[in-house]
Amino acid sequence: MNKILLVLCLVCLPGFASAQKTVGWCDEIEMLGTWEVTSYAGDFKSLPYDYRELTPVSVTFSDGSYTTFNYDGQTLIFKGYWITTAKTDNCFLHLMPWNGNESIINFRIQHFDNGFMVLHSYDGAGRIELKQVADPSAVRSTRASPSKDNAYGLDGVLIPSPENARGVVIEAGKKILL
Predict the structure, then answer these.
(1) Quick one: which of 91, 108, 106 has its CA closest to 47?
(2) 145 vs 161: CA distance, rounded Å
(3) Dist CA 91 CA 146 (whole Å)
(4) What is the arithmetic mean of pLDDT over 85-112?
(5) 150 and 111 in one domain?
C-alpha cells in the first residue's frame, strides 16, 4: 500500500507543482503602478503605426483608470489591461486600446518577479524590459508584532481574563485551544 501511495505522489506532484507556477507567477495587482523602461528593442507591429518608431520611457498600469505607455512628449492610452495564463506555462498581457478601431495589443510575459518584468511582442520580434518605480505612497504589507501579555478571541476582541476563557484564544500570535 505504501508503494502505491508513493507512486501516486510521484506521478501527481509534478503536475501540481506546475499548476501552482502557472497560476501564481503573474499577478495583475503586483503589476499596478509605474514601470520604467530599461531596455526596448525589436519590432512591435501590434502598436499603432505612429508609435512604432518611438521608444517608450515608462508604462503605468492603473486599476479603474487608464493604462499608459509614456514616450518623450507623447502618451499611448489604453482602456485597461488583463493577464491570462496558458497551459504552456506562459502568461500574456493584453492591452485594450483607447480607440475602438485598433486591435487589442498582446505581449508574452517572459519574466515577472521582484519589480522586474520582461515583455515580448506576441510574435516574438520585440522585447521590453521594465523596472518597477517605487511609490512611497503605496500601501505595502505590514506585520504586527504579537503582544505577549494579551489574549484575543477569533473575532479580534481582547479577552480580559484568558485563564477563564474556553475555546480558541490567540496569544502571542498563536492559536491556543483552551
Answers:
(1) 106
(2) 21
(3) 38
(4) 83
(5) no
User: How do residues 50-92 score in pLDDT, each as one tens digit?
Assistant: 888 888 999 999 887 889 999 988 998 888 888 888 777 788 9
Residue with cell 495564463: 85
Residue range of the domain that includes 88: 7-132
Query: Are the beta carbons of 110 and 118 closer than 8 angstroms?
Result: yes
CB 122 within 8 A of CB 86: no
Contact predicate 160/150, CB 8 Å: no
Alpha-helical (H) ranges within 71-158 are none
Q: 98 and 52, same structural domain?
A: yes
| Residue 134, helix vs strand vs coil | coil
pLDDT of residue 101: 64
pLDDT of residue 38: 96
SS3 76: strand
Confidence of residue 25 (pLDDT cuts 50, 70, 90): low
Q: In whole angstroms, give the CA distance from residue 77 to residue 91.
A: 22
Residues 122 and 158 in one domain: no
CA distance 70 to 77: 9
Distances (CA, A) of 140 to 115, 153, 171: 14, 26, 25
pTM listed for this prediction: 0.61
> Is residue 77 assigned to a domain?
yes
Average pLDDT for 109-135: 90
